[in-house]
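Memo to structure team: turn this sequence into structure tokens by end of day. - J.P.
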Amino acid sequence: MPIIRLFLLIVVVTSLAVPVSAQSLLKHLDLDAPAMTEAEMTRADVEAAMAASSAAAPADFTAKKLNGLDLSGLDLSGAIFRAARLNKTNLKGVNLRGAILDQAWMLKADLTEADLRDAHLFQAQLIGATLDRADFSGALVASDLSKASLRDAKFVGALLGADMRNQSMGLMRGVLRQANLDGADFSGADLSRVDFEYASLRGANFSGANLMRAGLAGADLTGATVKGANFNKADVDSAKLKSLIGEASSNLDRARNLSSAFRD
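Reply from structure team:
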């Protein structure tokens, strides 16, 4: 199947309420194909495009192949990367504030300490990416970050939850299965219906976060701060809920399967 047709299939299927995940579809995708491994631009080309851009006419890298490039430290704020391929791209310390990354491919990309504040990541694929200490504050992150490393990342006021007013084509929300989110800050974030199954969330900060109907089965929240967090109908089956801070001011008692969670 041609790479573009398969990409469109993945976008459509991951938008539908069916038991097929982007990760299962990746099995049928040739990750060694040129579209997923090669670059059609150089770092100098990207820098030139940014230099010629403005707030009224942002740099547009829609569907561009930027795989494997070293773009570390660049100011890419406000740029458009819709459906771009950035697999294994070095984006350490980049400024992506306000950038559009909808449906972008960023498999195993390195975004350590990247600034993603107010960015838009809708149905982006960041499976296995490194995002330690990245800042997603105020960003929309309805994307797949399964198995990603997000230690000490910031999601303050971020929108990862499903917008139930706009779900005509299925459940679209953040997926962070088996991700490492130790020390992450989710203060005031919308995490409703977000998938955290088997994620490591040790010492994470959920102060004032909305976790309604979130999937936390098998997740490790040891030492997490949950002051004022909303756990209404969140699934905590087999989750580790030990040494929680601020539990008395949360509504953890309204979570599902609380009796099967591991508690102090």
